[in-house]
Write a structure and sequence with these properties.
The complex is a heterodimer of chains A (282) and B (559).
Chain A: H1 2-33, H2 36-42, H3 44-47, H4 65-73, H5 75-108, H6 112-126, H7 129-143, H8 150-157, H9 161-171, H10 175-184, H11 188-216, H12 220-225, H13 246-266, H14 268-281
Helix pairs in contact in A: 1-13, 4-13, 5-8, 5-9, 5-11, 9-11, 11-14, 13-14
Chain B: H1 2-12, H2 14-40, E1 43-47, E2 50-72, E3 80-83, E4 90-91, E5 96-100, H3 102-178, E6 188-192, E7 198-202, H4 225-235, H5 253-257, E8 277-278, H6 286-332, H7 340-363, E9 367-369, E10 374-379, E11 393-409, E12 421-426, E13 433-443, E14 450-456, E15 466-484, E16 489-491, E17 494-505, E18 508-517, E19 520-523, E20 527-530, E21 540-544, E22 553-556
Parallel strand pairs in B: 1-22
Antiparallel strand pairs in B: 1-21, 2-11, 2-15, 3-5, 4-10, 5-9, 6-7, 6-8, 10-11, 11-14, 12-13, 12-15, 13-14, 15-20, 16-17, 17-18, 18-22, 19-20
């Protein structure tokens, strides 16, 4: 009885917290279909002194006008959307090409140098962007990559987090499997491709999915390195929120949430497994 | 093989399919959105400002006509059988214009012939009447003259007769006065002679009762008579008309003095005439004297009557002569001819002319031909209509130089003036004639605020009459910045144009409209000269497919 009650309370609390955590998304969805006039009424307190702010569960006069305006009348949206797709995709592909082999190398290279390097890699992973921002800027400027999307992509491609995540999976592969494969083939590449990658796939997927969530919302690097507006990702194009464009912002935010939402939904198991395995391996 | 397996593994996953579907959908919507945007973005035509002179081309619609016109007349009251031309037709000399009905023509000719005859007869009648009148007058004159002569004779005779009678009566009276009875008087009596002397003498017997009453006088003592007569005149009895007896008085004058009741004898009774006056002393012969006096009174009365008759005769003569003279005068006046004959003569001449014209038309079988090369400007005739005194046709005389006439509103072209070079293009595709000049600009007579513009056409040009367009151009001063009028806009803040500037946007380098305020100086309907220097703007929006405002993205239309 006590257990059931406690369980019920726990469920209730957890459920409430879940609802609370999902509430912004719900707010976003409702705001996207509410008319501009209604939103001005709802958020009067945000735009005017002394006004009230409240929100209804469903708008009185829902409209799809915002979607039409955004999707048909705002070609700038597609530019920034596909810029974001491009930047994120390039980073992820680059990471796959760079980080996974790097992680494999770290996992197969035993020794003090390897350890030191990996340690340094881990420290770098922990450093915030602001610490390395200036050095990054100087290097990119020297390379002549300023105001190009490569200035955002390349540093992200050589990010340390995917290496770390894939390394944890590579380390977990038993040595016996390598030995058994070495009986069949002595090729290190084949060993990596046929044994290492499939065995570490959950980790790799987790790295990719986490990378999507990180780089889709990237704002600092584009803000620093990209001056040309046509190269910006969507994060730099959200205008200042005012009474005149609140509906536009709601719709914009909802639309750019969709890809990440889909990816998160698709890779929720991998993310959970990846992070869990990583913690368990520790 | 392994790659294929890997790909299959990826695309068999539903979640991956969903993401891919989303991305494909977004790609599709991207295309749709960019297509919609390309429709929504205004397309503009751009140009640059130019340094130029503003030209004011004007065109005036009008007509090319001959300078002169000729009216074609026809005899009136003729029925038109056929009209061969209509307004706008070109005719040459000798071309048939219209024909008249021959039957009607013949009738008219006949009618006029009759009228001419009638007129002739009337003139003859008038002549005859005049002759008759003249003859009558001559006769009357003759008669009047005869009457005058006769009246003169008769009157003369009457006067003479009356005079004779009067003389006779006077003589009788004087004779009677000569025989005044005077007895025992001593026979002295006296009588006053006509000279005024008093003759004294012896008077012998006086037979009053008899017819002869004579007084003889003896002796004559005169000389003093004049005055004595006068003295006697005072004491004597003056003869006046009433008494019928001449008393004492001066010869001739006694009657005058007695003329209150008497009659004067004009010229016939001279002062020298003697009126004997004898004093009859009362010697006792009163009965003879009375008889004598009575007789004398009778004679005097008779004389007076005769005298009166004579005077009447004279008066009557005067009157009759006067009347006769007047009649003669009346008859001698010339007979004045009135204007009837002259008018009739004129009428005849007119009829002759008309007849001649009709005969000419008849000779030509009723055909009326053009007498010159021309173009029918107006034709009031129609088949079956009757000709009048008004012109049947008006032809433009094409043998004379042509001219262009057109109207233009004063508000459209206030600066048109004579001497401006122009070109003329006739309707019908001929090449325009250059080198013409406006020869005349006049205000419209009807006062409707328009100018009547005339330009003479060269006589050697091949242009023909008809509708045409006169074109001419006026140029202004040179302006450094001229832009098309379509690029000029007007707003609350004044006039402005839109320039193109390159703006870096999320969509890349985009052409964006930029508002440039300008101040127009002059405009000719096609270009407008502005004060500002627009050389810095390489592209100015001349036309846009939709309304634009500052900051709008635009797409430059490809030429």
């Amino acid at each position: 009885m006590k257990r059931s009650i406690l369980r019920g309370v726990a469920l209730g609390v957890l459920g409430g917290m879940c609802i609370l955590s999902c509430f912004p998304v719900f707010l976003l969805a409702v705001g996207a279909v509410a008319s501009e006039g209604e939103l001005l009424v709802y958020f009067q307190g945000l735009f005017e002194d002394g006004g009230r702010t409240f929100f209804l569960l469903f708008p009185s006069f829902p409209t799809g006008k915002g979607f039409l305006e955004l999707l048909l009348d705002t070609p700038e949206f597609y530019v920034v959307f596909w810029n974001s797709i491009k930047i994120t995709g390039c980073i992820l592909v680059g990471q796959l090409l760079v980080s996974v082999p790097a992680a494999w190398g770290f996992s197969r290279w035993h020794g003090r140098v390897s350890s030191v390097l990996f340690y340094v890699y881990t420290v770098l992973m922990l450093l915030p962007f602001q610490v390395t921002m200036l050095s990054n800027y100087i290097v990119i400027d020297r390379l002549g990559l300023l105001d190009t999307q490569a200035a955002v992509i390349l540093p992200a491609v050589f990010s340390t987090f995917p290496v770390f995540l894939a390394y944890r999976y590579f380390i977990g592969i038993p040595e016996e499997i390598y030995e058994a494969f070495s009986l069949e083939s002595s090729s290190k590449v084949r060993l990596f491709w046929h044994i290492g990658v499939p065995m570490a796939l959950p980790g790799i997927r987790a790295a990719v999915l986490l990378g999507v969530m990180e780089y889709w919302n990237m704002i600092e690097q584009p803000l620093l390195f990209l001056k040309t507006a046509s190269l910006w990702p969507y994060a730099l194009c959200l205008p200042e929120i005012s009474g005149e464009n609140v509906q536009y912002i709601f719709v914009f935010s909802l639309v750019v949430l969709v890809p990440v939402g889909l990816v998160s939904f698709w890779g929720r198991e991998e993310i959970r497994e990846g992070i869990g395995v990583m913690v368990a391996k520790r | 093989m392994e790659v294929k397996k890997c790909v299959e593994r990826v695309f068999c996953n539903e979640n991956v399919n969903a993401i891919l579907l989303f991305l494909v959908g977004m790609a599709f919507i991207t295309v749709i959105a960019r297509m919609a945007d390309s429709f929504m973005v205004p397309q503009v035509v751009v140009g640059a400002s130019q340094e130029m002179r503003l030209q004011y081309p004007m065109e005036i619609e009008g007509q090319i006509r001959a300078k002169g016109k000729r009216a074609v007349y026809c005899m009136e009251n003729l029925r038109v059988a056929q009209v061969m031309v209509e307004k706008g037709d070109r005719v040459e000399k000798g071309d048939l214009l219209f024909t008249v009905d021959k039957d009607g023509l013949q009738e008219q000719i006949q009618q006029i012939g009759q009228e001419i005859q009638k007129g002739g007869l009337q003139m003859e009648d008038l002549e005859r009447a005049y002759d008759k009148q003249a003859a009558q007058q001559a006769q009357e004159y003759r008669r009047a003259k005869e009457d005058y002569q006769e009246a003169e004779r008769a009157a003369e005779n009457a006067v003479n007769a009356a005079y004779q009678e009067m003389e006779k009566a006077r003589q009788e009276l004087s004779q009677h006065d000569g025989v005044r009875p005077v007895e025992d008087f001593g026979g002295m009596g006296e009588r006053i002679l006509g000279s005024g002397e008093i003759e004294r003498g012896e008077v012998k017997g006086y037979n009053i009762g008899g017819q002869e009453n004579r007084l003889e006088m003896k002796g004559n003592e005169a000389g003093e008579g004049g005055t004595e007569v006068d003295e006697a005149g005072e004491g004597g009895t003056e003869v006046d008309g009433e008494t019928g007896v001449n008393g004492v008085g001066k010869a001739g004058t006694g009657v005058d003095e007695a003329g209150e009741g008497g009659t004067e004898v004009d010229g016939e009774k001279e002062a020298g005439e003697v009126q004997d006056h004898e004093r009859i002393e009362d010697t006792g012969l009163e009965s003879s004297l009375a008889v004598w006096v009575q007789k004398r009174e009778e004679l005097a009365q008779q004389y007076a009557e005769k005298q009166k008759l004579y005077e009447d005769a004279v008066a009557s003569k005067d009157v009759s002569l006067k009347n006769a003279a007047r009649q003669l005068e009346d008859c001698s006046q010339e007979i004045s001819r009135d204007n009837a004959q002259a008018l009739l003569q004129m009428e005849q001449e007119k009829l002759f002319d008309t007849l001649q014209e009709l005969e000419e038309i008849d000779k030509a079988d009723g055909k009326i031909c053009a007498s010159l090369d021309g173009k029918v400007f107006e034709c009031v005739l129609s088949t079956g209509s009757i000709t009048t005194t008004e012109p049947a046709l008006i032809l433009e005389d094409l043998s004379q130089p042509l001219q262009f006439e057109g109207m233009i509103s004063q508000s459209d072209c206030p600066w048109v003036e004579e001497g401006i070079e122009c070109s003329l293009k006739a309707k019908g595709g001929l090449a325009p004639i250059e080198g013409l000049k406006i020869s005349k600009v006049a205000e419209d007579e009807e006062g409707q605020g328009a100018y009547r513009v005339v330009a003479e056409v060269h006589s050697d040009s091949a242009i023909q009459t008809g509708e045409a367009t006169l074109s001419f151009t006026q140029e202004s001063g040179r302006y450094s910045d001229c832009i098309p009028v379509s690029s000029l806009h007007t707003g609350d803040a004044g006039n402005y144009i839109f320039g193109i500037k390159e703006d870096i946007t999320i969509l890349g380098i985009q052409s964006v409209a930029e508002r440039i305020p300008v101040t127009p100086i002059e405009e000719n309907g096609e270009y407008v000269a502005v004060k500002e220097d627009l050389s810095a703007y390489s592209a100015i929006i001349i036309n846009a497919s939709k309304s634009i405002k500052e900051g709008d993205r635009v797409r430059i239309a490809e030429e």
